[in-house]
Amino acid sequence: MSFKVFDKWELDDITVEDKGLVRYISLDEVLIPHTMGRHVRRQFAKSKISIIERLMNKIMRTERNSGKKNKAYTIVEGALDIIHKKTKKNPVQILIQAIENTAPREETTRIKYGGIGYQIAVDIAPQRRIDLSLGFLTKGAMQSAFKSKKSASDCLADELLLAANEDSRSFAVQKKEEKERVARAAH
Question: Beta partners for 112?
Answer without folding.
Answer: 117
